Amino acid sequence: MLEVQHLRKLYAGRAVVDDVSFSVARGECFGLLGPNGAGKTTTLRCCLGLTAPDGGSIGLGGLPVPQAAREARYRVGVVPQFDNLDPDFTVTENLVMYARYFGIPAREARARAPQLLEYAGLADRGSAKIDALSGGMKRRLTLARALVNDPDILFLDEPTTGLDPQARHVIWDALRKLAKQGKTLILTTHFMDEAERLCDRLCVMDAGRIIALDSPRKLIESLIEPVVLEVYGDDVGEWANANVRALVERLEVSGETAFCYTHSPDAALQALATQPQLRVLRRAANLEDVFIKLTGRDIRD
């Protein structure tokens, strides 16, 4: 459904997307992860034909982009990073007006609207104004709007940013239903648990390049030790470097937290038992550990 080969995009002579290649199969949920400035959004814009690439090739739904971007987008739904619903229209009117971009007659769009609102959990909100909706409701409406043309492919740019945990889970359930229906999902997110739950495969980008590509489980298994001990406390770094580093495969200190990565945590736990002033969290390795290992702990602006 999406084929990207050796994609390049330059701004002011600097490659923000640098020789990126990947493909997405029908019915797959594919994730794009990376710190700010990694090139994710530019990659998506190139795939949608909204930004002209400086090299490489893109096939979207079997059509070349940007050459046939307009035709390809008729088969695509987009959930942007920020809601851009029209506050002058009601919930139903937002769906009807958006459908006109795809040449769908108003009568047909109004006939589709109840089913879309039912799917989004907004069946009783059709006549409501946008300003009367909560943040989670607006996000679900934006998702319903992206389905108005019954697309084969959905692009979702950080679909749950700014939502509380309950609203995030509602969106996750809606996306799982779409995947079961055979829709192809292409997702960017900064929530590692979201990527781990939803994505069949994902790629991690940094500085415009893909630095890892596989299923979440295989990335975790291949790159991270299975057990992580997070140790909190004053001067924990100095103590951990002196007393724990030799007992684990890998130790990272960030602020007042020591991250101990290991296959066998018993020796480290015994050493920590003699330090009651330190707090210890034992957990399984996860996708966030992969992300941090590959891209570092420094904040990107």
Looking at this protein, list some descriptive labels.
301 residues, Rossmann fold, Alpha-Beta Plaits, 6-stranded mixed β-sheet, 28% strand
Kindly describe this structure.
The chain is an alpha/beta fold and 301 residues long. It folds into two domains: 2-220, Rossmann fold (3-Layer(aba) Sandwich); 225-284, Alpha-Beta Plaits. Helices cover 35% and strands 28% of the residues. It contains eleven helices and 14 strands. It has helices at residues 40-47, 69-73, 91-99, 106-119, 135-146, 165-180, 192-198, 216-223, 236-243, 266-273, 287-295, and strands at residues 2-11, 14-24, 29-33, 55-60, 63-65, 76-79, 153-157, 184-188, 201-206, 209-214, 227-232, 250-254, 257-262, 279-284. A hairpin with a 2-residue loop joins strand 1 (2-11) and strand 2 (14-24). The model has no long low-confidence stretch (mean pLDDT 94).
Q: What is the overall silhouette?
A: globular
**Structural class, from helix and strand content?**
alpha/beta
CATH architecture of the largest domain: 3-Layer(aba) Sandwich
The CATH topology of the largest domain? Rossmann fold
Mean pLDDT: 94
Topology as H/E string? EEEHEEHEHHHEHEHEEHEHEEHEH
Helix count equals 11
DSSP summary, beta strand count? 14
CATH superfamily of the largest domain: P-loop containing nucleotide triphosphate hydrolases
Distance between the termini: 32 Å
Percent strand: 25-35%
Q: How many domains is the backbone divided into?
A: 2
As a percent range, the share of helical residues equals 25-40%
